[in-house]
Amino acid sequence: MRVAFTGGSGKAGRHAVPYLQAQGHEVFNLDLVPLEGCETLQVDLTDSGSVFNALTSLTNLNQLDGEGVQRFDAVVHFAAIPRILIKPDNETFATNMLSTYNVMEAAVKLGIPKVIFASSETTYGVCFAQGDLKPDYLPVDEEHPTVPHDSYAMSKVAGEVCGRSFQARSGIDIYGLRINNVIEPHEYKAMFPAFMEDPSLRRRNIFAYIDARDLGHMVDCCLKTDGLGYEVFNVANPDLSVGISNAEVRARFYDGVPVRRDMGERETFYDISKAQRLLGFSPKHSWRDVLDPTV
Q: Residue 293, exposed/middle/buried by CB under 10 A (0-12, 13-18, 19+)?
């Protein structure tokens, strides 16, 4: 497929883009900085005209001697200010919200048949809440209320509203990915020993994570699955990001929180069964392949 990928130079994108290329997709990166190994157009996504222009652009110089501009088969929108406390709150909300609107509007009006956009675990409110906010129930699935307490998560919920509206208006497939904490392969040795020593460090991420390589697999699953209309999916690896068991985490951190079904010893509290069922999502990587949780 011919894929326009916004934010391909970011932490998640720089792993997802090579994965998609390895699956045979032609990827065109729309970002403010280049990405090695991928054609990149530097685009300010908060400018509507620039977005429309980018999505009707040549993607490489070879097209000057070929068929010229060709329509994209899909847009993957990952570009964003990635959390609070990087920019002022109003700028975080405005940048993320406007760029998401612009990308979806352009895709719909240009007849691009699929949009996959990055939402976030933060939509459930737990991650950037003031104090200790527990989920309403476990495991946290896509039906859990999304009542965020911060500008970043608010922008992601607003993006989901745009996605639902543009899908209803156009009938194309628009899939939102509620992505958990993205972990790059080198970060396992750097970060996870501390998580094993102090599991409370993972409370705000609902004790979950997503390997950046498996996030690329998730995007590929979405590209290959047609006809779902508007859907949101939790995206995480199937195991907890701490060395203690599911039952131990519940006893220490989730006392009194209702548990809606039986859970496995290492199973994540961030329910990915919907993506597994509808998309064939099957993550392959784990921090346990790198570290021994008993050490």
A: middle
Distance between CA atoms of residues 215 and 7, nearest Å: 14
- If one counts every other C-beta atom within 10 angstroms of the C-beta of residue 81, the result is 17
Determine how many CB atoms are found less than 10 A away from the CB of residue 86.
10
The token pair that represents 118 in the structure block? 């990055």
pLDDT along the chain (295 residues), means of 10: 98 98 98 97 98 96 91 98 98 98 98 98 98 97 97 98 98 98 97 97 98 98 98 98 98 98 98 98 97 77
Q: What amino acid is encoded at 252 in this protein?
A: R
What structural domains does the chain harbor?
2-289 (3.40.50.720)
Residue with tokens 């490489």: 60
Q: Note the helical H segments in the chain.
A: 13-22, 48-54, 89-109, 151-170, 187-197, 212-223, 246-253, 273-279
The Cα 247–Cα 267 span in angstroms is 10
Contacts of 203 (CB under 8 A, 6+ apart): 126, 132, 253
Q: Which residue's structure tokens are 């995206």?
A: 235
Q: Are 60 and 38 in contact (CB under 8 A)?
A: no
Nearest to 182 by CA among 11, 29, 5, 8: 11
Helix 212-223 vs helix 13-22: angle between axes, to the nearest 10 degrees? 50
The SS3 call for residue 167 is helix
- 29-64 in b/e burial notation, b at 16+ Cβ within 10 A? bbbeeebeebbbbebebbeeebbbebbeeebeeeee
Tokens 């997709």, located at residue:
25
Contact 192, 225 (CB under 8 A): no
